[in-house]
Amino acid sequence: MARIPAAGLDAMIVDISKIQTVAGPSGEPTYLRGFEANDPAIDAAVARLASSKVAYLALRGSDIGRRPGCATFLQFQSTEMVGDDLTRLARFHAKGLRVIQFTHHNNTPFAGGAIEPTQRGLSRLGIEGLGEMNRLKLLPDVSHGSVATMLDAARLSRTPIVLSHGAARALVDHPRAAPDEVIRAIANRGGMMGVFMMSFWLTRDPVPTPQHYVAQLRHVINVGGIDAVGIANDFPMDGEAKLVKLGNDNAAGVKNYLDWWRAMDRRGVPGFAWTPQHVVIPEFNNIHRMERIAATLERSGFRSGEIERIMGGNWRRVLTDVLG
Known about the structure:
Helices cover 40% and strands 13% of the residues. It has a single domain (4-323), classed as Alpha-Beta Barrel (TIM Barrel). Strands 1, 4, 5, 6 and 7 form a 5-stranded parallel β-sheet that branches. By secondary structure, the chain is of the alpha/beta class. Strand 6, helix 4 and strand 7 form a beta-alpha-beta unit. The protein has helices spanning 4-7, 35-50, 87-95, 124-136, 147-156, 180-188, 210-224, 241-245, 250-253, 255-266, 289-299, 304-323; strands spanning 11-15, 20-23, 29-32, 55-57, 70-76, 97-101, 139-141, 162-166, 192-195, 229-231.
């Protein structure tokens, strides 16, 4: 948390999930997020923010900028901790949670996951849960969901939704990336998509560059409009730690991902038949990524108003529209 000022962030969404890693059907790691571990995780995060001099708990979009420091919105990257008890959504909201994802890669009782060999959308429980999210003013997040999950949520939600961190499938054909119909559906309902920096889902070119990231942003803008895109990360603030230690040597760092990647291919999940060559864009895998992205956008011909929306204005708008 002490590194927040160096990152230059005014606001951030932070996943506070407590994860148990177990072996999946092909030996791949599967991540479980139970109620017993995650209910107190909200309390711990709130307490930590209460004692921080550089960040504070944000409950509404209008909290951004209300005091010095970084407005911090708490997120769960799954609904497993809800189980089939929808009253837990109100419990989590009352404690300070503001963003919740339907699934993380795999199926949950709420929804179908992106990397399941057989795809499905929102379940009856998931539809009821979405209604409760809307009532409570919890921001629904469809990241890691199947295409059917994302389209169901966009169609049924009474508020804007987000795909908080992902990429465009038109540029890299992979289930973790969103097809144009999803980008368009989210944008048409006033939502947005954050483009993350896991480079193997941004480009299949052998060397990832800042322009590959810009290409992803441009594609989302071309499909959904300038109000439909923002910056996402999915790495620690200082960058993907193992790659940082390796001096951003992608050839060495990608080896950490290959066992999982090959296990997905053995399961028959589409999009894993090729072998990735990199993990990060070296220029962005550090604490200064935000200022470097802004500078890259300026050099790429974006106007100042467009850069402001991409760098945070769209996030502020959606958070305010949904949370108040």
